[in-house]
Each structure stands twice: as C-alpha cells, then as structure tokens.
C-alpha cells in the first residue's frame, strides 16, 4: 500500500475513502495515527472544529505540518493497519499498546515422544503452543494435572529410533517413581505414548469430556479383567479430572467459543476487560489499563483493543460480546451487545472486572496520597510544628579541600520530590573551605530571591549538618528579617540527631519512624544533588585547565569549543574541519596534536 503525503493546506483534496492517516510535525516525526471511514471528513474535523477540541487535541493540531494517508478497502482493514502502526511507532498522541511478550505458554514439542513444558519464548517451529497464560499459577495447575494423569517424559534426550537402539540412554528416577514408562530404553512404544499426548492435548484445548471418557473406558476394561489396582488408578485420575473441572469457571454448555470485551472509562483512563471462553469455560481473563492521550471515545479504544488483544492471545472466534455498539464492517467478526440470557450475564461479569480494575487504580492513587499526608502529620507532631509541612526545603554543601565549592537545595512538596524546584549554587563570596559561611551565603541567596519575587516560603527548612551549619543558616534568616517565621532544623549524620535553633539538646526520633525516614530522604537527596554538581564542575574545570595548557589555546577558545561540542570526548572526536571552523586552522592542528600525544603517552 502506497502512502500519499499532503500539507495541512490541502486537506480538502483528501479522498472520501476509508483509510489510515498519519500526522507529522516540523521534525518529520510521526505524532499520531488514526483510521477513518472517510479520510476527508475525519481529517477536516481536526482543523474545522477547533472550538470543540480539548486542549490536548488543540495542541496536537498546532504541531501538525504534514499528513500521510494510506487507502484501504474497508474500515476494518483500516483498523488492522492502525493497530500495527501504533504498536510499531508508538506516536506520542496515541494510546500505548503494549505487547506482553513475557506471558508464559505451554508447548507440546515436535519431537519424537513429545514433551509438554512451560516457556516464555514463542518459537512456532519447536512445537504447538497453548496460551499465553495471564496467571502463572493457573498454568502450573494445568501442567500439574497433565503430569498427574499421564506418564509423559520430562527429559530432553533425542529419542530417535537409532539412539534408542544403540542404548544411549538409561532410565532415570522418574521411571522408578512411576512418572515415566521409560521410552528412552524402548520400554514404551511410540503409539502408546502418543495416546497419552492426544488426551493431554484435549485438556489443553479445554475438551475435558474426551479424557473423562478415555479414563472411564480404561477403568471399566481393567475392572472387567479383574485388574482392580489398575482400575483404582484410573478411577483416581478420573476424580482428578472431575475436581479440576469443578474448579474451572463453567459458563454454559450452550456457549462454546466466545470472546467478551467491556470498557469503562473517565477523562484520564480507560479499563478494557477481555474474557475468552472455550468449550463453555472461561480460560483467560485480562484487564488492560489505557491512559488517554486525546479525547478518544470508548468505541474507538474498544475497537482498537479488540484487534490488539485477539491478535495477542491468538483468538479466532467469530462471536464477540461487548457493552458498546461497534460497527466494524468485518466478515471476520462482528461485536454484538446482548440484552438478555447467559450472554448478557457474561458481559456483566466482564464489566464487573473492568469496574474492579478502575476501583483498584483510584484506591492505589488515594493510598499514595494518604500515605503522604500521614507522614507529614507525623512529622508535624514529632517536630511540634504549627502547620503541616507540605513544602520542605533542604540544603547541603559540597567541596574537596576548598576547590569548586558548591551547594544544593532540594524541595519536597506533599512529601514527594519536586525536581523542578531543585537549585544548584556556586559559592561566590567565600574563599577557602568554610562550610558555615557557605551555608549562610546560600540560604541568604535563596530566601532573598523568594522574598523579592514574592514567592511562597517553605513550611520547614532542613539543614544537612549539626549545630554549626544550623546556626549559620539562622544568621542568614536573621539578616533577611524572617528568622522565627519559618521552622528550621539541622540533622547530624552520625546519630541522626535533630537540632533546633538555640536548643543545646538534640531531639531523637524513633529510627523506624516514617517522619525520620522522610528527613533522611531529604538529606540524602540534597547530598546526592550537591555531589553530582560538584563532580561535573570539577571535571569541567579540570578539562579547561588541561586544554588551556596547550600553547596558543586560551580560555576564550576553550569556552567556544565547549559551547559547540559540550564535552571533551566530542572535541577529541571532531574532525580537523569542524575544529578549524571554531578555533581556526592553526589552533585546530595544535588541539589534534595535543590529543594525539595524550594517546601515545
């Protein structure tokens, strides 16, 4: 299928046919994929009905520079192509469709004397696969049942006729335990072994009636031959099957192969549940959470998820039940909305799963919020604060023997990092390694600026250090006339003691307390942020000093090179022409000679 490119000015030239459209931005990056019964009407609606769009859609439309279309025969074909393009390219304005490649399968191998084993790798040439199983426990129960009912081998030997005839293999412990009949030594014929494999395949397909009949007949044959111990074994296996069948979710013997899809959604999320029914039993249930990117309708999301999940779970059934009316114009399958009977009950069961997933999602979000509030309330109690510390700022210094002294400030809001409010500081007024003076400078600069810009002050200030650093920070607040307005504490590393201004005795908070862990998290984050900045600065200065030692290369040239190439490795990898364009031919040659000598040294 050939793609045709249009500009946004040519939308009226688009054909009135079904197809897929793709939007590209100024960098020619794919930002959205959509399908339409009429490309002309659908694409035009984005540009002609801008007042009806959400802010996200308006933003997307503002980024569109060109439109690419592909014509197809039907809307269903467009849906299939749209699904593939979204999964391949993951455009930023489309919902995210993930391939669950880690779900396990049960494989019946293509070997002579086939094995049945679990795997997460789908390699069709190796055998026949059943799954994927969304519940590993359920898969293991099926495998355990098969191993209990049938004497199938678990070894990986190549049981060719030639190898068995040569006596290459010996029976293992499984043979002596009665779990295998020893085909590796020719003690079981291939014909007899394949009978067990056929019955195991019936179980994997969900046809439990055939294995039941098989064991019942064998039990009756053994009893007729007065082999009562053998008859008892078959009876126990029959009971195992009955027990497994009773634990399976039986829907209705009248319903054979059916797929059920339901969706519930709100402004931010959609939850799509998929139930697969085979031979009147539910053998798979999966709920997907979709984060909406634009103002997608339930019908659009559901139709896309139907195609995606049926492909992912290899469903070929034609009957699909759902809670939304969707007309795909497909001969492969047609979704219907049942009104009464067993089919309606199935839709209600699937809908119950979707609603449960939605409830769990918002409960988890509320739990995170509640936990944050709980920790802050505990901190307020432990520190005897007047207000809940919803906004906390923490300061730390970093220097090595006074070189490149820097400081950091990290900000937590509602008990969580607010990284956009983090700040780095280069120490400007302090000469030498003086942590106290550096702390005074940084705290003073921070809150002088907040006061000038009329920004809100924090509800708590945390200083990484003991009495000395805390006292220095208090001096800065006094100079600004806000000392006493903001609670301020220091945390000493050795014993994790909390110091208050003008209080000679530290506060010891329980080491297991959530409030102490929050203060430690603030302190550690400030320390990490300061150390990272210090290392970057030291590395940059080291590089500047090293390159400035080259004859004819001064600070001005170094700054120009850094501005263009950013790092030393990029300067070293740059061509002579690229260096000449920045520094001139003579300096470029000297720089390349410098790096060459450095390699040889």
TrEMBL record:
SMART domains in alphabetical order: GIYc (SM00465)
GO cellular component, one term: excinuclease repair complex
UvrC family homology region profile domain: residues covered: 264-477
PROSITE patterns: GIY_YIG (PS50164), UVRC (PS50165)
A Gene Ontology molecular function term of the record: excinuclease ABC activity
Compartments in which it is found: Cytoplasm
Domain GIY-YIG, residue spans: 16-95
UniProt cross-references to InterPro entries, sorted A to Z: GIY-YIG_endonuc (IPR000305), GIY-YIG_endonuc_sf (IPR035901), GIY-YIG_UvrC_Cho (IPR047296), RuvA_2-like (IPR010994), UVR_dom_sf (IPR036876), UvrABC_protein_C (IPR050066), UvrC (IPR004791), UvrC_RNase_H_dom (IPR001162)
Stretch forming the signal peptide: none
Family assignment from sequence similarity: Belongs to the UvrC family.
NCBIfam families recorded: uvrC
Alphabetical list of HAMAP family matching this protein: UvrC
PANTHER family listed in its UniProt record: UVRABC SYSTEM PROTEIN C, UVRC/OXIDOREDUCTASE
Name of the protein in question: UvrABC system protein C
Organism (species): Roseivirga seohaensis subsp. aquiponti
